[in-house]
Automatic annotation (TrEMBL):
<dbReference type="InterPro" id="IPR023616">
    <property type="entry name" value="Cyt_c_oxase-like_su1_dom"/>
</dbReference>
<feature type="transmembrane region" description="Helical">
    <location>
        <begin position="152"/>
        <end position="177"/>
    </location>
</feature>
<keyword id="KW-0349">Heme</keyword>
<dbReference type="Pfam" id="PF00115">
    <property type="entry name" value="COX1"/>
</dbReference>
<dbReference type="InterPro" id="IPR000883">
    <property type="entry name" value="Cyt_C_Oxase_1"/>
</dbReference>
<dbReference type="GO" id="GO:0005886">
    <property type="term" value="C:plasma membrane"/>
</dbReference>
<feature type="transmembrane region" description="Helical">
    <location>
        <begin position="392"/>
        <end position="418"/>
    </location>
</feature>
<dbReference type="GO" id="GO:0020037">
    <property type="term" value="F:heme binding"/>
</dbReference>
<keyword id="KW-1278">Translocase</keyword>
<keyword id="KW-1133">Transmembrane helix</keyword>
<dbReference type="GO" id="GO:0009060">
    <property type="term" value="P:aerobic respiration"/>
</dbReference>
<feature type="transmembrane region" description="Helical">
    <location>
        <begin position="197"/>
        <end position="217"/>
    </location>
</feature>
<feature type="domain" description="Cytochrome oxidase subunit I profile">
    <location>
        <begin position="97"/>
        <end position="603"/>
    </location>
</feature>
<comment type="similarity">
    <text>Belongs to the heme-copper respiratory oxidase family.</text>
</comment>
<dbReference type="GO" id="GO:0015990">
    <property type="term" value="P:electron transport coupled proton transport"/>
</dbReference>
<feature type="transmembrane region" description="Helical">
    <location>
        <begin position="430"/>
        <end position="452"/>
    </location>
</feature>
<keyword id="KW-0249">Electron transport</keyword>
Length: 640
C-alpha cells in the first residue's frame, strides 16, 4: 500500500518559523560579537544590529515556514538518496473546509485558496482606505498624524496591487484555465502550491509594515529612492514582501505558460482557445519578462538601506532617476498584468450573455499580444516631471497614445458583440457592462495624461488618484466581481442570490462614481494627493467623497454575505447554468478531482453561438480518444 502524502500542517510550520527567526538572531549576534561589532550597547541592542537581525529574519524565516509546511519534503527526500516514494493522490483535492488550510496540489483547491486569501487582504486594504477617507473628511487633523497617514495610503496601495488584484486573477485562472483547455491539472502542481503559500508570507509582511517597530512603511507603493533608503524599519518589511509576491507571480506565470503550450486537449489549437486563455498567456509573458525588474529595484533599495551601498544616494554619486527607470519598466507593464486577465473574463461573459460569437476573435487575440509588446515602450510617461531628459518625453507621449489602439480594438469588438445580441442582464452581465463604462472613462483620462502639457499640469493631484481608480477599480475590480459571480456555480456547486448580486452591483456602481468622479474636479483645481491636510476650498467636495466611499465600502459586505451564505446553503447548481460552450461548463459543478472522466476532444470554436448544432468539445472514452483525434481535428479545422 502506498503512503498517504499529506503536508505536516500549519502548527509545525509555525514552530519552524519561530525557530528560524531565533536562529537568524543567534547568527547575527554571534557574528557581530566575534568580529568586534557590538550588538549590545547600554543594556539594549544597537540599531545596526536590529536592522541586520530583521533583514536576515525576513529573508530566511519564511523559508523555514515553508520547510515546516512540507513544501520541500520531496526535494529533501531525493537529496538524501532515498528511493522515490509512490504517490496515491489521497492529499489531492478537498473533502472538507480544513483541506484548504494545508498544502494541496489540486489546481481547483489552489485557485480557491488564492481567491479567498486575496479577498482577505482586500478587506484589510479597504479598511485602510476607509481610514484615509475618514481623515480627509474635513481639513485639519482628525484621527491620525501625517506620518500615520502616509503609512495608511502606502500600505493600502501595496496590498491592493500586490496582494489582491494580481493574485486574485491568478486564482481565478488557476481554477478555470486547465478546465478550459481540457487539462487534468496544471503542468507543475507542486510549484503551483508553493507559489500560493508564498502569497500569505508577502501579505503578512506588507501588513506588518504598517505597525513595524521604529516606524511604518510610508513611502507610497512606489517606494521612491532615496526616501526609501532612509525610511523607518517598516520599509524593509515592504521591500522583502515585494520579493516574495514577485517570486509567487513568476512561478505562477511559468506554470501557466507551460500548461497552455503543452497540455491542451486533442484538437484545441491556439485559434480554438477561449480568450481568457489568450489573456492569461499574454499576462504570463508580461510577468516573466517584467517582474524581475521590480525585484531588482527593491534589492537595490535593500542594499542601500541595510548594507550601506550607494546606488541611489546622491551625496555618494548615486543615481536617483535610475530607480524610477527600473521601477516603472516593471510597473507600467504591471498595469496590464492587472488588466489583461480581466479582458479575458469580460470576453467570456459578454459572448455567453449576449448569445453571440466574439466579434473579431483573432484581432482580439492579436491585440492582447500587441499590448504585451507596447507595454514595454511607455514606462517613462510616469516620469514627465521627474527631471529626466526632455528629449525622451515626446517618444514616450507618442507610444502612450499608440497603446490605446489595441485597447480600443477590444472595446469596439465588445460593443460589436453586444450589437443585436440576446442580452441576459443578470449579475455577471451587469458587472461586465459596468466595466465597459468605467474602463472607457478611465482610458479617456489616460489619453489625456499621455499629453505632456496636461500631465505636467495635474501631476501629483487628485486627478491622478481618480484616473488610477477608474482603471484599477472600475476596470480590474469590476472584472474580478464579474468573474467570481460567473464561475461561482462551477467552483462551489451552488447558485448565488441574484437579488443580492444586483444590489451589490448598483450600490457599488453609484457609490464608486460618487467617490472617484469628483476627484477629477478637485485635482484640476489643484488639490495635491498624498497629503493629510488641504485647503478649506476643497472641504465640501472631500466630505462628499468620504461619505460616498463609506457607502462603497459597505457595498462589499453585501458581496461577502452573498458568497458565504450561498456557498453554505445556496441552491444546487447544474453543470452548465449559463448554457456556455467552453469546456469547463461541460463537466459537473464542481468538477471531478482530475477534471474530466473522459478525455475531451475539441471539434469547434469556443464562441459559435447561433451556429445550428454547434459543439465545442466532446468527451471521448480514454481508450478511444487517440484513434478519433486526427479525424475530429481535421474536420473541425475545416469548420473554423
Amino acid at each position: 500500500m502506498t503512503a498517504r502524502l499529506r503536508a505536516p500542517g500549519l502548527p509545525r510550520a509555525g514552530f519552524f518559523l519561530v525557530l528560524g527567526t531565533l536562529f537568524c538572531a543567534a547568527i547575527i549576534i554571534a557574528a557581530r560579537e566575534a568580529y568586534g561589532f557590538p550588538v549590545f550597547a547600554d543594556g539594549g541592542i544597537t540599531t545596526k544590529a536590529q536592522n541586520a537581525i530583521l533583514l536576515l529574519s525576513l529573508l530566511i524565516a519564511p523559508l523555514w515556514f515553508l520547510i515546516g509546511l512540507g513544501a520541500f519534503d520531496y526535494w529533501f527526500y531525493w537529496a538524501a538518496g532515498k528511493k522515490e516514494r509512490a504517490e496515491d493522490h489521497s492529499g489531492h483535492g478537498a473533502t472538507s473546509w480544513t483541506d484548504y488550510f494545508r498544502v494541496n496540489t489540486d489546481h481547483k483547491v489552489i485557485g480557491i485558496q488564492y481567491v479567498v486569501t486575496s479577498f482577505f487582504f482586500m478587506m484589510i486594504g479597504g479598511l485602510l482606505a476607509m481610514l484615509v477617507r475618514a481623515e480627509l473628511a474635513a481639513p485639519g487633523s482628525q484621527f491620525v498624524d501625517a506620518n500615520a497617514f502616509n503609512g495608511l495610503f502606502s500600505v493600502h496601495a501595496s496590498l491592493m496591487i500586490f496582494l489582491f488584484i494580481i493574485p486574485v486573477f491568478a486564482g481565478l485562472a488557476n481554477y478555470v484555465l486547465p478546465l478550459m483547455i481540457g487539462a487534468p491539472d496544471m503542468a507543475f502542481p507542486r510549484l503551483n502550491a508553493l507559489s500560493f503559500w508564498m502569497l500569505p508570507i508577502a501579505g503578512i509582511m506588507m501588513t506588518a509594515s504598517f505597525v513595524a517597530p521604529g516606524g511604518s512603511f510610508s513611502t507610497g507603493w512606489t517606494a521612491y529612492a532615496p526616501l526609501s533608503t532612509s525610511a523607518p524599519l517598516g520599509q524593509m518589511f515592504f521591500t522583502i514582501g515585494v520579493q516574495f509576491a514577485g517570486v509567487s507571480s513568476i512561478a505562477t506565470a511559468l506554470n501557466f505558460l507551460v500548461t497552455i503550450i503543452t497540455m491542451r486537449a486533442p484538437g484545441m489549437s491556439f485559434w480554438r482557445m477561449p480568450l481568457l486563455v489568450w489573456a492569461n498567456f499574454s499576462t504570463s509573458l508580461l510577468v516573466v519578462i517584467a517582474t524581475p525588474f521590480v525585484a531588482a529595484s527593491q534589492f537595490f533599495v535593500l542594499f542601500d538601506y541595510a548594507l550601506g551601498f550607494n546606488f541611489f544616494r546622491p551625496e555618494k554619486d548615486g543615481d536617483v532617476l535610475m530607480y524610477q527607470h527600473v521601477f516603472w519598466f516593471y510597473s507600467h507593464p504591471a498595469v496590464y498584468i492587472m488588466m489583461l486577465p480581466g479582458f479575458g473574463i469580460i470576453s467570456e461573459i459578454l459572448s455567453v450573455k449576449s448569445r453571440k460569437p466574439i466579434f473579431g476573435y483573432r484581432m482580439m487575440a492579436f491585440s492582447l499580444l500587441a499590448i504585451v509588446l507596447l507595454g514595454f515602450t511607455v514606462w517613462a510617461h510616469h516620469m514627465f516631471v521627474s527631471g529626466m531628459q526632455d528629449w525622451i518625453r515626446i517618444p514616450m507621449m507618442v507610444t502612450t497614445a499608440i497603446i490605446a489602439v489595441p485597447t480600443g480594438i477590444k472595446i469596439f469588438s465588445w460593443l460589436a458583440t453586444l450589437w443585436k445580441g440576446v442580452l441576459h442582464l443578470d449579475t455577471p452581465m451587469l458587472w461586465a457592462l459596468g466595466f465597459l463604462t468605467m474602463f472607457t472613462l478611465g482610458g479617456i483620462s489616460g489619453v489625456i495624461l499621455a499629453m505632456v502639457p496636461m500631465d505636467i499640469y495635474v501631476s501629483d493631484t487628485y486627478f491622478i488618484v481618480a484616473h488610477i481608480h477608474y482603471v484599477l477599480y472600475g476596470g480590474s475590480l469590476f472584472t474580478i466581481y464579474a468573474g467570481v459571480y460567473y464561475w461561482f456555480p462551477k467552483m462551489t456547486g451552488r447558485m448565488f442570490d441574484e437579488r443580492l448580486g444586483k444590489a451589490h452591483f448598483w450600490l457599488t456602481f453609484v457609490s464608486f462614481n460618487a467617490t472617484f468622479g469628483p476627484m477629477h474636479l478637485v485635482g484640476v483645481k489643484g488639490m495635491p494627493r498624498r497629503v493629510a491636510d488641504y485647503a478649506e476650498e476643497f472641504a465640501a467636495w472631500n466630505l462628499f467623497i468620504s461619505l460616498s466611499s463609506f457607502v462603497l465600502g459597505l457595498s462589499t459586505l453585501i458581496f461577502l454575505y452573498n458568497m458565504v451564505s450561498s456557498w453554505r446553503g445556496g441552491p444546487r447548481a447544474s453543470a452548465n447554468p449559463w448554457r456556455a460552450f467552453t469546456l469547463e461548463w461541460q463537466v459537473s459543478s464542481p468538477p471531478p478531482i482530475f477534471n474530466f472522466d473522459r478525455i475531451p476532444t475539441v471539434v469547434g470554436g469556443p464562441y459559435e453561438y447561433g451556429v445550428p448544432g454547434h459543439v465545442h468539445g466532446i468527451m471521448e472514452p480514454a481508450e478511444e480518444a487517440r484513434p478519433k483525434q486526427a479525424a475530429g481535428a481535421s474536420s473541425a479545422e475545416e469548420g473554423v
